[in-house]
Amino acid sequence: MYLQCWAVMCCNVPQERVFKASGSNNFYMAMLLVILFLSTLPAIYTIVTIPPSFDCGPFSGKKRMFDVIHETLESDFPPWFSRVFSYASNPGLVLPFILLMVLAIYYLQSTSKSYKEANVELKKKLQTQNEENKKKNKRAALKAQMDLEEARKAASQAAEQQKNNNASLPEQEGETSNK
Questions:
Q1: Positions of the region Disordered (predicted)?
Q2: Closest CA relative to residue 138, chosen from 94, 146, 154
């Protein structure tokens, strides 16, 4: 038991660097997207390529399960909708559209990274400017304090001199009256 307790205490040490919540959230969302894509591949492969059972099921008598969609479009919808759907499902149209979406995602991701780098640089500049302003304010406060001390000294000297002048005036008046 003590050995297990020691192993738990040694192995279950928290990370030194705290992970950002948004980074881990993006990672989990990307993993979910990949898993969703991978889980739909077998179903899509089955629907498009494997022929259904001949004897039973809703797809009996069809070459592929996908043929039901064409029959439904032809029988239940107007003819123009079936033509639009057949043009939209054309690989010559779908593949460039997918390629365009991938390029757009790549472009948006790269601009996002560049904006993020610019924000980091701006934050650094703001921090250095803030530090410089603090230093300037500190210098200005020290200078104002020195000026205030000099003004106090000058005022105290002027008060002393005034006091001395006031004290010497009665003495001078006494001397002039004695003469």
A1: 128-179
A2: 146
In contact, 131 and 124? CB cutoff 8 Å: no
The answer to whether the CB of 31 falls within 8 A of the CB of 48 is no
CB 52: neighbour CB atoms within 10 A?
A: 19
Name the DSSP class of 65: T
Q: Which of helix, strand or coil describes residue 8?
A: helix
Which regions of the chain does DSSP assign to beta strands (E)? none
Using the structure block, give the residue that is written with the tokens 């759907």: 85
- Using CA atoms, how far residue 174 sits from 73, 167, 170, 177, in Å, is 128, 11, 6, 5
Whether residue 21 is predicted with pLDDT greater than 80 in this model: the reply is no
**CA 107, CA 102: separation in Å to the nearest integer?**
9
Q: What digits encode the pLDDT tens for the residues 163-176?
A: 887 777 666 655 55
- Residue 163 pLDDT: 83
Query: Which residue in the block uniquely carries the two structure tokens 């790549």?
Result: 106
Single-letter residue type at 113 = K
Nearest Cα neighbor of 69 from 53, 89, 45, 54 is 89
Q: What does the alpha-carbon distance between residue 36 and residue 44 come to, in Å, rounded to a whole number?
A: 12
Q: Find the DSSP H helices in the chain.
A: 2-11, 21-49, 67-76, 79-88, 91-178
